[in-house]
Amino acid sequence: MPIAPKPHAALLIVGHGSTENPDSSTPYFDHAAEVRKRGLFAEVHCCFWKEEPSMREAAYMIDAPEVYVVPDFISEGYFTQDVIPRELGLDGPTTTNHHGKTWHYCLPVGVHSSMTQLILRRAAEVAPGVDPAQTSLIITGHGTGMNKNSTKAIKDQARLIAESGAGYAAVLDAYMEEQPFVADWHKNAATPNVVVVPFFIADGLHSYQDIPVLLGIEKEVGAAASQREVFRHNPHHLHGKTLFYSSAIGTEPLMANVILDQVRDFDLKHLAALPA
Amino acid sequence: MTLTEQLAARVADGIRHIGQVAILPGLHGHAYALCHFEDAGKAAGPDFGGLATHHGPDAGRDISIYAADGDFRFTKGRTDLVKGWVILLENAPDLRLALDHIYPAAVGLWLARERGDLQVENLRDKLNRQTGMYRYAGTISDEGAQALVQKVCGPAHACAKKILWRIDENTPLEDSEASRYDGIPSDAAPGKAIPLMCREACNHFVAECRKAAKAEFEAKQNTP
Q: What ipTM, to 2 d.p.?
């Protein structure tokens, strides 16, 4: 469902960014440009943890009296629950009179149910004509023993896709730093075809450089995605299986819709009940 | 007035530079044009003096990602903005967006400082909220931090921002080229440039603090 225009509000997209990889912030700017093009908000801005503008500089860019903050993050966890509220000075779903504005803090894009369709679309694009009944779909993330929430979004998506009737023989989750490990993909997938979709926002260090090594596609960590002359060619034939590897889910242009879905859901959950 | 309206009014009043960028209103019939300030003469010539011509604000991001040597410019105040381009813009909102791509938040920070609304964050506050591997940066001594400013900041070290922060509320930066710098790396006439503001130490400086703190710790360990 499309959201109604908000001519008096700004959208602030929050990303992680990187001091090392220029591709890390590209999807955020792409998402912002796409939303801006639709003319739904008075202003659309990005801010970052590791790049500029910083979160603490963001308020100085915004004219609008009302700001919707959408973390362009894949899961709920340390950044969305601790860092972003602290840096932006948010004290709940809605924070008033901060920098003279009202701030609405939406959930991160990765936990929205509409991500399911994006993953299925990305999986079908990367392995065209491949029979899902002979295919395992593996959704990969970082994983960390420090925060259980970091894998929840991926486990939720794996369950939703398994229940969706998409027809995959199996839908699995896998992680870089906790079990089940990405490197064990060929042991955990029983089918002849395997599609791996990285559940990251950007084609940064993890999805474009680290995971290909863990999968066995590459022998060593390569250059950043934008500096490659030739993108990876699917499929890869490894361990007696046919492997298809997609770019990060966050590079999908329809992510702009998910950002807007989170704004709409925020309004439905937090603002619909308020007296006019 | 909105930030965009204020920017447009100030450009109409004669503002012509921000960082290493020249702002050229009305160039060859376009509402605004941007280029490296050292290319301003070329841009004024026929066919923009052979500069690569871009239309629209999004080009501002593409141009400012890499230095000429291919280095990733993750801090945008660096003085190695590439030359050889001109961006053509047809209205004030696009001017503001293009400038926010090249120098993120700089216009807003400048206007906030002029209003007296800019909140500056001193170094100790910045370091004390670091987590993970950067938590250790907070152990740097005041002397070490003062030395680092002179080693890392200012135009001699390729940063064009005017430092507004102190070590802490009671400890100003020691006098140096870096601490005196005005945030204007171009040849702009007085009052004709938007200075770049450093309201908090950047991630690069924090990373350098961590290294220096580690060196201080190791030096103490090695002292008999």
A: 0.94
